[in-house]
Specification:
The protein is globular and about 50 Å long. The chain has 249 residues and is an alpha/beta fold. The protein has a nine-stranded mixed sheet with strand order 1-2-3-5-4-6-7-8-9, sandwiched between helices. The protein has one domain: Alpha/Beta hydrolase fold, catalytic domain (Rossmann fold). The longest helix has 26 residues. Helix content is 40%, strand content 24%. It starts with a strand and ends in a 9-residue tail after the last helix.
């Protein structure tokens, strides 16, 4: 990993851009003391997602967490995939026509993304956790939800996860979901025009964790209420800080 730039934001958060091999990313830290790390998942390129990612990272920093993200395969500045572009076009065509999205289209779009992205997130942990300002444990927060499910199954350093229900889920991921054991908070936008609500609810039912909570809010894909940021921070404080003392259950 190589840091390529840094800036101090107006609230004192240090934002550093980096490359992990050929993969661009950003790390946000709030001080020199070692802090638990939150991986910020998202559905696309860093440039387009930056305002929302930076806002989420600053919320994390305000609660004493470090935060980091990387660009997904085939998005932003990374080389495109003709197969992914075709699958995305097929999905968009079905949605615009009001037709069901077939399992084959979802598999072609999501499964190759999961297969490539999850090892990159794990490599990011290898690079970040030795830094003196990061202590672990690690949480994952965001989408693509199938990436979050896979990480929660295969990566023991991820101790808790907040999953954003806002993308189509391959049937194979439902089998993986039953293997998830870490505490979960799932955020669902009830009126998300591009999301299969029934699929999201079925996935929540399939998740194997003994502790799992669903927060459903009215509104579209990008309309997650600001107060859910507080819910996310409370969730991570409970599970990533050994000295945290929360209220009664």
């Amino acid at each position: 990993m190589r840091f390529t730039s840094e800036q101090r934001l107006d609230d004192g958060v240090l934002e550093r851009a980096f490359t992990l091999g050929e993969v661009p990313g950003v790390l946000w830290t709030a001080g020199s003391a070692p802090a638990p790390l939150i991986l910020l998942g998202h559905p696309g390129g860093l440039r387009g997602m930056y305002p929302r990612l930076a806002a989420r990272a600053r919320q994390c920093a305000a609660e004493g967490f470090a935060a980091a993200t990387i660009e997904l395969p085939w998005a932003g500045e990374r080389p495109p995939s003709a197969a992914a572009d075709q699958a995305r076009a097929d999905l968009r065509r079905a949605l615009e026509a009001g037709e069901p999205v077939d399992d084959g289209t979802v598999d072609r779009l999501v499964l190759p993304l999961v297969e490539q992205a999850v090892p990159e997130w794990r490599a990011l942990l290898d690079a970040l956790l030795p830094l003196p300002e990061i202590s672990g444990p690690v949480g994952y927060s965001g989408g693509v939800i199938s990436i979050g499910v896979r990480l929660a199954v295969v990566e023991p350093r991820v101790r808790a996860a907040v999953l954003f229900a806002g993308s189509f889920v391959p049937r194979a991921v439902f089998d993986e979901a039953r293997q998830v054991t870490v505490p979960l908070l799932v955020l669902l936008q009830w009126d998300d025009e591009g999301n299969d609500r029934r699929m999201a609810l079925d996935l929540f039912d399939a998740l194997g964790s003994a502790e799992k909570t669903l927060h459903a809010n009215t509104g579209g894909h990008t309309g997650v209420p600001a107060f859910e940021g507080e819910s996310v921070n409370r969730f991570f404080a409970r599970h990533l800080r050994p000295d945290h003392r929360g209220g009664g259950r």
